[in-house]
Amino acid sequence: MKSDFYAAISQIAAERGIPKEAIIGQVEKALVTAYRRTLGTNPPPIEINVRLDTGTGSWRVFAEKQVVDEVFDDRFEIEVEKAKHFKADVEIGETIMVESTPNDFGRIAAQTAKQVVLQGIKEVEREHVYGEYMEREGELITATVQRMAKGNVILEMGKAEAILPPKEQVDGDRYYHGQRLKVYMMEIRREERGPRLIVSRAHKNLILRLFEMEVPEIFNGTVEIKSIAREPGLRTKAAVVARQEGIDPVGSCVGMRGIRIQNIVNELNGEKIDVVQWSSDSKEFIANALSPAQVVEVQLRDDDHAATVIVPDKQLSLAIGKEGQNVRLAAKLTGWRIDIKSATTLLDEERTAAEAREAAEHEQMATEVALATAKVESRKVRSDGTVLYLNNKYGPLGDVLIGEDVQLRATPSKIYIYRSDRLIASYMLNEDEDKGEDEE
After folding, report:
1. Which of 183, 285, 338, 440 measures 20 to 30 Å from 427, CA to CA?
2. Cis peptide before 396 (omega within 30 of 0)
């Protein structure tokens, strides 16, 4: 029976793919519990060990007993003469470990330890799964679809199950039983009912791992993916750079006749992928990121970390992309806010700005000529802080100037007020007459 018991443990370990030693450890704990139950209620605290004889497959119990002259309870005591067989110089009052395997221990173990053993095996299995996958967080793993549950896709990964939550699924994907998927191991949670493996098909690092699998140059580090921008199921942009001279990073990722990139696209069910050249020059990187559109010029505004990109008129819709997708992904990829303008629009804006500047300059020049020829008139600031000119009040100029003299110069449209040859205010001329009293 004991040999059968040992064989059963070996079979369980093989079927569940967990170490046999771990199961044996749990069984030993369970059998210690079983033996303690044979000692009756409230036994004294004694040390108990259960050991497996791997040669015969039998279990042996060793319990702590006290050496005495006369035995009253052989469960906890041993005669001094018998004790000397285990330790020649033993003395009365000492405690020694003595084999105490009951004759019917196999049956007792089977009856009393069954549930504990089963529970122990489950715990070992959970720990084994956690130990196997805890180091694989962030890796690409191939899994098989088992079932759907409340919107979650349950995947089988060897001896473990993983969950693909709704928010980590790609819109438009269809999942069916037996389907094999490559997923990104996003998180491993340790919960009471065992480890919880959370995987993703929408994470941008899934793209990175797929490139590492398909492109040897990325796997060995001669080509590096600097940044990834992704809208799952629709389109992805990846910026790459060579870390070794003589290597074409974009060509390495695309592969001969596009075979490498096509394999990744197929795994993503047709999601489009743009591979662009990364550059430390922000202008060049932004221009590359807007591929496949051609760029005429990139103007940077460092103060608000934004860029204005000029493209040919015919390239405007391509640069922006469907519903703004191309420019949106380019902005995520580069980290810059990007405004797209066509060459014609830019010329129109520049022409309008030039005309506005010219008009402002002309107005300024006319104002300066008018002021140079204007008559200077002196006025005293009234008690309400204003001055009177052509029966109209202008101000207030402030309490500190009340009663002080100021100088006025008028152009056809504005009046300018000076104090000690310094301009302190200007107002548009009021054509409506004020019926108040005239300046004295």
Report:
1. 440
2. yes
